[in-house]
Write a structure and sequence with these properties.
Strand content: 35-45%
CATH class of the largest domain: Mainly Beta
Oligomer: single chain
CATH topology of the largest domain: Umud Fragment, subunit A
Largest sheet: 8 strands, antiparallel
Number of helices: 4
CATH architecture of the largest domain: Ribbon
Helix content: 10-25%
Distance between the termini: 61 Å
Radius of gyration: 23 Å
Shape: elongated
Number of domains: 2
Amino acid sequence: MDGADRRRALALKQLVEWIFVIVVALVVAIVLRVYFVQQFFIAGPSMETTMFGDNRVLVNKLAYRLGEVNRGDIVVFDRATMNGSVVEHDDLIKRAIGLGGERLAIKGCVVYINGSPIAEPYLPERDTEQSDLSSRCGVVDMDEVTLEDDEIFLMGDNRPQSFDSRMFGAIKKDLLVGQAFVLLWPPSAWRGL
């Protein structure tokens, strides 16, 4: 084998190695995305001031297969709706407020769990001016509901502009995609959630 043949054989070997590396990397990336971690784009104002419309978050898809939902977790869930005879899927992001088996009510914009108000330090400061409650929190009052053991009550942090469980009801735990754990984009806003 002369020098030109050796160079061709070496080039072919390197090409095959690169193709193998690229295929393995793609398979690993797909497996990670499907089963472990996925990036989601935030659309809409429902989670402001925690997250904004151009933000992207990483979601741990194993979080609720291996553990339980905690109050305050930011979750992504699949909200399936019927449009005629077609089922449409929409991934939404909200905060877990009420957990299975709890009694939940809203009075004067304050969420009560089992009769006691909950602390919500992630919400923007509220003044106590009663006349403007609905513009600051959307639904001012909601009669008490009891969540089933497999249900979660979700709300956006921007209560006046959030389409959440106050409108569509509690969701079943099996609709959870995962827990948002990192604000990824833009880079200047990078932080854990």
